[in-house]
Amino acid sequence: MQGIDLSAYALGLPPEEKLSYIQKLQSVGLIQCPFKTQPQFWTKKKEDFKSIVKQTDRNDLIFFLIYKPNSTKSQSATEKPIECVKSLDSYKKYIAGYLRDTSAMKLPNGKIVVKRLVTHSMAFSKPPLNCWVVLHSHGGVACGHCDCIGGLGGTCSHVGVLLWGVVNISEETCTSTIQRWHNKSATKHPVSIAFTFYTMKYELPTTISQLKNSQKTKRRDDDYELCTKETFVEILRKLDLEKNAPVCLHLLIDPFSDKYVPVQVRTPLPKRLTSLFDKTLEYLGVHSITQEQALALEIVTKQQTHCKQWNHGREGRVTASKIYQVTRTSLTAPSKSLVQQIVYPMDCSFTSEATDWGIKHEHHALNTLKAHMKERNNHSAFEIENAGLHVSTSHGYIAASPDGIFKCPCHGSTVIEIKCPFSHRNQMLLDAAKEDFGFCLSVGENGVQQQMFACELKKAYFCVYTTKDFACIEVPYDETLVTEQIVPKAKLYVLQVALPELLTRYWTVVRYEKKPLLKKVERMFKMVV
Q: Residues of 30-63 as b/e, b for ≥16 C-beta within 10 angstroms?
């Protein structure tokens, strides 16, 4: 143990980790830490590097990271394998260029030491990490190490990046390099060309001078007999009987041109399967729902949560209560719970003490709003109606269910949105705003704007109700926010997330189904190849 020359990194390790590191070096026959070995002992030439690591392939990498026993002390069959799947997945980092500055060294006992620098996974500004692995001469990985926090085990993701680099070099084919299969076009020595001149073998029947003096025989059109229609049809009939179809019959000449009509013109071909997706695009357009259908749906869904058609109409549509989550979720890996709430709203109904309190006191808030409007006396005759599900006729994938519609003959219709905060139900609104910074809500928030867009209205009353206080704020319509933020993001979500789930159950069944570890390893193999 005393004969091993340790680097500054090894000397700085805690006693237990230092002892484990020394035992790792002794197990592979190293008398000096690879981090301290002088540069002249390492080779960086690709040809030399490939020749000494050619026995190592991806099967050795899989065995080392997945099936190797978790403990080096016990090699029994009952020992649990290490199963470092995350390190096996590090081929993505290798492809992204995390690996650099490769060098290799062959030991007297035949083993090969490979050392490289690997960039940090998240901290790109920090100095790169130092990694080394020891390979057997006959193939296989003996051990590895990295100077990161989890590198003492020898199977961290940085060691995985290094092993993928070794496998890529050892399995490189001749066609992977530039023009290895082409012959050299240039010759080293000039080639002498022997020019041989031949004499004419036969005499021409006519001399050139005679050809120049000859004159063409002129013929008049009167010498030809005009072809009648019956003769022309007879000629075409005989040509039609020929085995090889003449080109002239391809013209529009009845009755011989009928059999030359293309098959796809005579019999319409079936529609492309991709037209199914084109239909989904049409569904998202202006023909998704008519004005009469939208009005009928709004009338039959005025009871909202107590109406089955209300849940049916929300299936696959982005509602105002979900637009905040839709604009912030990932389109490549969306929230599974959000997908279920949008596509299967009836199966994802949520109730709690807070929601029950809000629904129970919603009519109290509407009555307070009526009294508030009568006190102000700004409207000659107004009424407040219950609202059902409003679906946009121009963008059928957008819907909203306001808490009510305020109708006035002098000011028109207005959307009503009511909030009954359960956590501040017995407080004044100013006191709640001072105590809870998250209590305040932007008047231009996406949900209220989407409600105005779906209802085709230009104004909304945003009301907050507690048992001790009430406030009503008028919110104007923000067309820029709707056209540049809400509509484009909602459309992308429906196209890339909601429609695949509606058609194939992609996100809830196919994407997130559990697969055995071996299938995951095979899938990684195919992606690398």
A: beebbbebeeeebbeeeeebeebbeebebebbbe
Per DSSP, the three-state class of 385 is strand
Split at pLDDT 50, 70, 90, the class of 319 is very high
DSSP 69: B
Counted residue by residue, the chain has a size of 529
Using CB atoms within 10 A of its CB, is residue 372 exposed (0-12), middle (13-18) or buried (19+)?
middle
Strand, helix or coil for residue 460:
strand
Q: Is it the case that residue 380 has pLDDT exceeding 80?
A: no
Asked whether 103 and 115 are in contact (CB, 8 A), the reply is: yes
Neighbours of 3 (CB within 10 A): 7
Token pair for 243: 């085995």
- Say if residues 310 and 304 touch (Cβ distance below 8 Å): yes
Least Cα distance to 138 among 109, 118, 159 occurs for: 109
Lowest-confidence region among 50-64, 192-206, 317-331: 192-206
**Span 478-524, pLDDT tens digits:** 999 999 999 999 999 988 888 888 888 888 876 655 455 556 556 65
Q: What is the dihedral of CA 149, 152, 153, 159, to 10 degrees?
A: 80
Domain residue ranges in the chain: 8-173, 230-264, 283-508
Distances (CA, A) of 397 to 212, 387, 462: 84, 19, 24
pLDDT score recorded for residue 416: 92
Amino acid 218 reads: K
Report the candidate in 107, 120, 115, 124 with the shortest Cα–Cα distance to residue 44.
Answer: 115
Q: Distance between CA 26 and CA 28 in Å, rounded?
A: 5
Angle between helix 362-376 and 353-360 (nearest 10): 40
Name residue 459's beta-bridge partners.
Answer: 476
Q: Indicate the pLDDT class of residue 459, thresholds 50, 70 and 90.
A: very high
- How far apart are alpha carbons 201 and 495 in whole angstroms? 78
Query: Which residues contact residue 46 at a Cβ distance below 8 angstroms, ignoring those fewer than 6 apart?
Result: 169
Phi, psi of 470 (to 5 degrees): -155, 140
Strands 404-408 and 398-400: unpaired
Tell me, what's the pLDDT at 77?
A: 44
Of residues 370, 309, 358, the one with CA closest to residue 464: 358
Contact present, 377 and 427 (Cβ < 8 Å)? no
283-508 under CATH 3.90.320.10, yes or no: yes
Model-wide pTM > 0.85: no
Count helices and strands (H / E) in the chain.
23, 12
**Can you tell me the distance from the alpha carbon of 392 to that of 400, in angstroms, rounded to the nearest whole number?**
9
Residue 171 tokens read as 């399995």
Which of 280, 277, 299, 297 lies closest to 288 in space, CA to CA? 280
SS3 string of 119-147? Answer: CCCCCCCCCCEEEEEEECCCCCEEEEEEC
Taking CA atoms, 176 is separated from 169, 171, 179, 468, in Å, by 10, 10, 9, 76
Q: Is the peptide bond before 255 cis (omega within 30 degrees of 0)?
A: yes
Identify residue 203 by its one-letter amino acid code.
Answer: E
